[in-house]
Amino acid sequence: MEFPSSWDNSNPHAHDVYNRCKKYYSSGDEDKFVNVFKPSIFSRFICGELMNYIVISVILILIKKKAYVKMNCNITLLLLFSFGALLSVIIFYFRRVLYFDFPCFVIPYSNAISLPLCIFSSAGIIISYLKQCYNNASLYNKHYNEDKLRNYKRGYLHKVCFHFSEKYLIKLTLIFITMSLLYVTFFTMGEYNYTIYPSSQGFCTLNYELAPGWLLLIVFLFGFLPMAIHDFYMFRGNFSFIRTLSATLISSFLMVTIYVVTVNINKYTCSSISRYFPSEFFMIMFFFIFYITHITVPLIESYIVNKHVNRLELTKKGLYKVFDDELLYKEFFEYAVKKRSVEYALFHVEYVEFKNLFKFKIGINTNVDDSSSDILQSPTSPTTTMSLPFLSSPISTISPSNFLTSAIPAISPTSPSTTTNVMSKKLLQTYEQIYTKATDIFEKYFKEDSELELNLPGKLVKSVTNSYYDYTIYYNRYVVNGTGEHEIDMNKIDCETLFDDVHEEAMDSLFLNVYSSFAKDKKKVLEKKSSHDNLA
């Protein structure tokens, strides 16, 4: 077969393609050979549909952000994956459509950005699901002091999940992208395979420039995916959505493997089948599979759950009643473990304990023995201040647990100020309990890498964090380390509403993810039992 007359004879890349493929064609097959590199309607249609799908998905993620968060989805990583996938598909589409004129320097630069975004974010999303499984298994064992889910420690990614943080993953992604861009720039300046000015166009055959992306892809394919498949298989039957995720990982492994194999086989890239199913088609299928599993399915599940809620006429009152029944709560707790949402149930329990500390309000009744006495000020009450002249002992010499009580001077029973001082003492002890509980809840449910860290909107976490730090700074400065020179603004140490918004989000998540399915299954059991009794 002769060199195609329609090709640019002065383009060295065109000769590279010709020399690589000519042995698979006979004399007179010029037209057949040239048609291989012209995009088919099918491949253009697939690319166009995926681009539309990605754009629509991003819009849905932004519109239905709360629904995705309540379904335990990681919004940030989904958006990063979307951007990387969209960039990859756009470059692939125009590279096929403009095969004979596409500027070659665009490919390595776009690849250095899009591939790390896709690989790191998809790995992060998978690790997020695995982390939920590991944490819920660990919490189940600790809660019941048993080893029912003991296999979870045998997972290959157990330690990775334990130390996983979205913030560090994003930093790692940015570092890898920066290094890849520097690497590509080095080869671009050396003009090994292409030039920017004048721009090398068409028949782009690149080798060394794509090395960082290929290295990352190989590690993801033959290192990360097999370990993730093993770990998900280890949890089979213990958690919901595991079978779907396992099937997704296996399908992703097959699609990426086929891409890696076909893109390096000349016989395939030179054959007519590559016109309809180019190697990049299998990466597109990987994107499709990932999108369906992590974006479409959660949205459909959210719709189905809301439909069930309306049909069964479920309310949150029923959810609250579950926590009041010991036997029912145990069943619900195990159900929450399967749904990877047990941390929300535990948060509710601790939230109730926290709120119970505020059952007293500051009032005019000074009878401290009366359980109905008001000890804490209501958030809606007028500003109250309190002077602490007796808090003068050095904090470094007294432990926090006994500081507030030991700093109170001894009072004679006959003293006219006995009631007031005892009132102050009890007030301070109560505030110390509140401070300790608030700190405990914050460190358990809001600190990164915490086993009980809640999946919450970023704005809500930031708001609670800022309010908590303002509260603790004021408390430590004027109550714990106070010298009595400043009066204390009681409103600033009254943190009763600190976790209210978070609790509402947590109960919404429990209601949609766990209670709706739990109530549905319980209803089925009751109906089945009733039917059996009627037959008997």
TrEMBL record:
Gene3D superfamilies: Regulator of G-protein Signalling 4, domain 2 (1.10.167.10). The chain crosses the membrane at residues 41-63, 75-94, 106-130, 168-190, 210-229, 241-261, 281-304. The keyword Membrane applies. This is Uncharacterized protein. Coiled coil: none annotated. It comes from Anaeromyces robustus. Keywords: Membrane, Transmembrane, Transmembrane helix.
